[in-house]
Amino acid sequence: MTTFKRTDGRKLDETREMKAKVGIVPNADGSAMFSFGDTIAIAAVYGPKKMHPQHLQDSEKGTLRCNYNMLSFSVTDRIKPGPSRRSMEIGKITEWALSPVVMIDQFPNTVVDVHINIIQANASTRCAGINAAAMALAHAGIPMKDMVSSISIGKLDKTLVVDVSKAEEDWEDGEGATDIPMSFTHNGELTHIQLDGKIKREQLKEAIEMARKATQKVYELQKKALKETVE
Amino acid sequence: MTGFYIKLGVATKEKKHKMAELYETSDVTRERIRKYLEEGKRFDGRKPDEFREITIEPGVSKNAEGSVRVKIGKTEVLVGVKMGVGEPYPDSPDRGNLMVTAEFLPLSSPRFELGPPKFNSIEVGRLIDRIIRESKFIELEKLCIEEGKKVWSVFIDIYSINDDGNLLDAAGIGAVAALKVARIPKYDEKEEKIVYGEWTSKNIPLSKDIPLSVTLHKIGNSIIVDPTREEEDVSETKLTIGSSGEYISSMQKGDEKSLTIEEMHQMIDLSEKLYKKIYLKLEKFIK
Predict the structure, then answer these.
(1) What is the CATH number of domain B38-286?
(2) Between chains, do B12 and A140 touch, taking CB under 8 Å as contact?
(3) Is the preceding omega at residue B227 within 30 degrees of 0, hence cis?
(4) pLDDT of A126-176, one tens digit each?
(5) What is the ipTM of this complex?
(6) Is A25 in contact with B110 (Cβ distance < 8 A)?
(7) Structural contact between residues A169 and A178, judged by C-beta atoms closer than 8 angstroms
(8) What is the arithmetic mean of pLDDT over B254-265?
(9) Of B4, B106, B155, the CB nearest to A115
């Protein structure tokens, strides 16, 4: 297992270079960029604002609404502009990943819109999107119990790696690739997990632990970028 | 973590004020913009015929054939070029296809909502399409692979990132700049498909004459260019002129108010002067 070489030479628990920046869309209430290597996500938050149409209003609490979109030229094979089944699912997944920390109970009948756009894609786009969205929410001053940090774990043949790239996602040797994107609060609670592929229970537990560790690094970077905006 | 939102929450109160302005320009502001213009003045100190600072930056997405970020003041757009191989249109069997789309992302303004494209983004897509097409900037006849069967398709996709007025001219600059930096992807003749992620060293065949859009707005008796969001709200009518230096190859008047012949002359002359200025920016970028 020690001889396992990643396609880009990274250590097993090493992410690609991560970058984070807050305040990139002047019009928005909050905005941020987060990147894993060549995967770049930007997010903007608008709200809380009155939800309309009215029948969507919730008189008990505010609504978090996430929209995920890939720019047509973010991938090599052009994506037709507009929503797709995939993008709608990822939008929903992102809402679920962030909801546990977003305290919008105090804003009934309102909506907080989070718009995530992938500018350049090289796998793990939903994780970059969630990281950017969580920062944008904090930047917008939306009350939050905690931060959310997201990372993908891959199983390439039999080996677990952190932050899956496109080349790794397309891994075909041995048992092939298993992709496990996960999101954690800084407190260590899991708010999102998906899995595509094939993995044994024990190894999945290992993968979760690996993700937990890796998201702490993501968290430090998110915190640093947010602090820069208030200092 | 709590520290973040408490500190940022303070700043948000000012932001809320800003947001109200973003949704709608108030009557007071509208009135003042008009009053200022009567004396030839603008809020940001520009002359009526002056553009804000323009910056062009290439390489937004490595996966695009060509891509750029264009900023005009606080307005920002991303423009990417992708290519595909497809069937030609029946009326141009020996020419490549061109498709231009513009999407006003909800990310870029509280005014833009999700859902089917609204008229303003369709308008930008169509205007840029005509500015590129009518000027014959792309030598589409050189993008034919097999007459009547296979030609290259060029997709120009425009996205707004922050709207502070004049997305249209930003999109025009972006489209030309993205085409300029684009490389043609590799094409596998045998498999009859594009080798995505690999490029040739060839650029898209382009003519020497660079088309640009200049949009002029009429407010009261004044003619201004490159309006901010607020100024755009006050604009009574606008004229988009697509020209390649000397020659005008596309034009469209938008909105309800009419123009006098004298105003038209003024706009036509002004567009030439502005073309030269924007061209210099672009020229620097291309080199």
Answers:
(1) 3.30.230.70
(2) yes
(3) no
(4) 999 999 999 999 999 999 999 999 999 999 999 999 999 999 999 999 999
(5) 0.85
(6) no
(7) no
(8) 89
(9) B106
